Amino acid sequence: MAAEDRNALEPETISDVSPAEESAAPNPEPLAFDETITLLSALKAPPVLALLQDKDYLLLRTTAFSGFRMNHQGLGNPVVRRRLAEEAARNGVFAQKLRDLSEAEDALRPSTLSPKPEKTAATDEDAKRHEEQLHQERQKRKRDREEAREQIAALKEKVRELERREYESNLALRAAEAERDAQALLADKHAQRIARLERQTARLTAERAQLLKSLSGHAPHTRSAASHAANAKTSQTSSSDAVWEEAVRHLIDKNRHDQALSLANDVLRADSHNLTALDIIARVMEASGDTRAASISARALVTASLGRGDLRAATDAMVKLLLIDPQTPEAEKVSRAFVASIRADDREAVKHAGAAFARLRKLNGQAYARLQKHIRKQLSPTLADTLDPAPGALSADDILPLPGFFPYPLTASEIIAAIDRGDLPIVASVRKSLAHAETTDAALHARLLGALELAAEGDRTYLAPLQKKALGAAVVDASNAAWFDQESMTNARARLKPILELRRALRAKGYFPVQLMGDAPLPYTIDEPEALRRMIAQGEITIVESGTDADVVLLRESKRLSAPLVTNDYMVDWDPNGEVTKLRFDLPPHGNAYFWT
User: Fold this and answer.
1) CATH 1.25.40: does it fit domain 233-387?
2) Which of 27, 36, 120, 289 could, after both became Cys, cross-link 31 (CB 3.0–4.6 A)?
3) End-to-end alpha-carbon separation of the chain, Å?
4) What is the mean pLDDT of the segment spanning 94-119?
5) Three-class SS of residue 399?
6) Contact call for residues 592 and 570 (beta carbons, < 8 A)
7) Any long-range contacts for 421-428 (C-beta under 8 Å, 24+ apart)?
8) Is 151 helix (H, G, I), strand (E, B) or coil?
9) Consecutive H or E run containing 440
10) Where are the domains of the chain?
11) How many CB atoms lie within 10 A of CB 593?
């Protein structure tokens, strides 16, 4: 056979002909785009990648694999295949190379037309046996898997049960710890309360013992009414009365009426005409709703006050009696005796009675009408007119006819409120008007003062800045005053009463305006928070903002007003050189406050 014939029978391989020889050979047919895509999908990656490694296809592989790695993953990318298909559609030589690779792979695949081996009976038996073994093996593995799943499920259930028990145990433990903490807190509160009650009981026991010991020396004074009248003022200012009133006031403030009543009865056993004891019994009986017992105590209080010659105390007791029981014959009898004891020469007592009767007229018109009947019947017309003002008299809520100097109308109550808040322009204008009325119309001046005193509820210190020029302003350390007195230190609670007493005492000494200033916690520690809030709203007291040192504000305000600072705190941290005058004070349980520098 010739060489040319042998070459025709050999399978086609990738041509090793150079590109120059390829150009001399006939140009192969290009591949269609879809055909090339199918061909590339069927070809294995290594032959194609080896083909592209040829230096003649450097530009092709650079373009086709731009942005991709030149490996079998990159070759499998649709973008790369599309670029190669486009090249095969243009370049017939490259298309022929791909055909050659496909034919070479087809030659290596086993023929699908080769005859199948013939089946024999032995082969079928072996196949069945082998299939049976495989089936049994699969069944065994299936059973093993099911058993394993059951064991895993059982273990998971045990784990869940253990977790549930642990959760319940933790809950029970936390509940027990919370209960233990609550019981410990409650026990601590009970212990504190018991300790506080023990201290209060010990203090009250000591006060009661001191009271009874002091009263034992005053028992002989109860033998005659004349002895009571001669020693009325002495007994009211004695140390025993001070102890008694302080103890009873404390009990009433704490709503311990039974203990207050017990102390009052102990005092009455030693002094059957003790005014404070009778007044306390009347107050306790009225608070408990026993009107009859309260009326009996009030009548006894009026009688005892008249027996001591204390018309002011008798007036207050009479008003109390008429408010409790204005209609009984016993009250009528006591009213006649009281009116008969009023004397025109006791001007202070008459003024006090007039103010008290005016309050009674506001509180209970029927009770006042019964008292008015006795006043008009038993007293002289002049004294009756003083005690029972004519219809034209000015009340606290009437517009006052202030002559000249005053820019707008005001009532007596509004003027008193202006004094409380330290309103200098209003007070100065009213002072000028009163001075003008005093020189031009004495009757009008008296009517104006009567209305002002009525609005001040008998507190004549309010008239001081209206009748004479003030010494100057005073700044009060209200928090220091609220914590100063013995009651505040004993009960660990600030009190409003010392603040009001200081303001009243400073007005009486001629200071105006009296500027009250407290620190930020004062509204939360005071014993009368509602009253303090009203004072704050009405501008009577200034509360320093939270986070600001009250001492700094007090010292700055005193310097601004050139006013003394009323405090018992030395404030050495902020005023080491004593540039601001400190006005020290003392507030005795009974009696007026006094000051020193």
Assistant:
1) yes
2) 36
3) 149
4) 70
5) strand
6) no
7) 421/513, 421/538, 421/539, 421/540, 422/473, 422/512, 422/513, 422/514, 422/515, 423/513, 424/512, 424/513, 427/465, 427/466, 427/512, 427/513
8) helix
9) helix 424-440
10) 3-108, 233-387, 412-467, 472-596
11) 19
* CA 296 – CA 321 distance, rounded (Å): 9
Phi-psi category of residue 537: left, alpha or beta, with phi > 0 → left and psi -120 to 50 → alpha: alpha
Quick check: 474 and 502 in contact, CB under 8 A? no
pLDDT tens for each residue of 32-73: 888 888 888 888 888 888 888 888 888 888 888 888 888 888
What does DSSP say about strands 582-586 and 565-566: parallel, antiparallel, or unpaired?
parallel
Name the pairing type of β-strands 582-586 and 472-477.
Answer: unpaired
Say how far apart CA 310 and CA 299 lie, in whole Å. Answer: 15
Fold observed for domain 472-596: Rossmann fold (3.40.50)
pLDDT tens digit string along 463-479? Answer: 999 999 899 999 999 99
R_g over Cα of the chain: 57
Cα 580 from chain centre? 36
Amino acid, res. 146: E
Rama region for 194: left / alpha / beta (φ>0; ψ in -120 to 50; rest): alpha
- Strand-strand pairing, 594-596 and 582-586: antiparallel
Residues 6+ away with beta carbon under 8 Å from 459: 504
Rounded to two decimals, the pTM is: 0.43
d(CA 476, CA 565): 6
Cα 94 to the center of its chain, rounded Å: 90
**Cβ pair 494, 521 in contact under 8 A:** no
Q: Across the strands, what pairs with 596?
A: 584
Q: What is the three-class DSSP state of 63?
A: helix
